[in-house]
Amino acid sequence: MANRVALVTGGNGGIGTEICKQLAAAGYKVVTTCVDAEKENLAGWQAERKAEGYEIGYVECNVADFDACAEMAKQVEGEYGPVDVVVNCAGITRDTFLHKMDAAAWNAVISVNLNSAFNVTRQFVEGMRERKFGRVVNLASVNGQKGQFGQANYAAAKAGMHGFTMSLAQEGARKGITANTVAPGYIKTAMTDAIPEDVRNAIVAQVPAGRMGLPEEIARAIVFLVADESEYINGALLPVNGALFTSF
Fold first, then answer.
1. Model-level pTM?
2. For 88-100, how does the pLDDT look when each residue is reduced to its tens digit (9 = 90+)?
3. What CATH number did the domain enclosing 90 receive?
């Protein structure tokens, strides 16, 4: 895995940052996407990672835009080399009950959370097939498995990501390409820390593990799945949810 290039979309978020760090620690050359580097202070984020001992690159790209992803792919592979690992982590929420949801809220979530998996992966899968090696991990959600009030758009996108995973796994298996899904439960990030304490406590009360997960636990699952040695794990959905939702 030495010097393999790993692209993580939305890697400057709470979970994404830990994914980038653990991949870098495992020896990958890591690049993340962002929408607006200045607005998101990617230079500051990158400097913080460097101070921690991680060299992580970044590139601007609206992953909901196919043409932008094509340009991003040229830039990344031109600067860093062929991309062997893609982690589709970018995502947004626009929560509201379906009877109140407008088309903009539906389309935004489907575009960023689901269409982006195609937009990004499509740019690299031919190269993976030629080199007979590739690892794709799609970040879904427990709510894509069980549904959730006020998240018809989000749950549909996250469920769709695993359909994409399963199909890509079958197409790529003979070419040394794996595609797997990691489905986090409730994870402790700045976003969940901002939830009112009483609501947060009610959420934790539903989790058999008695706590929220940590970004490190999601990242660990991804590093495992993208390893050279994990080739026979293909088309799987790995839940990391503290037993909040279990199924065959």
1. 0.96
2. 999 999 999 999 9
3. 3.40.50.720
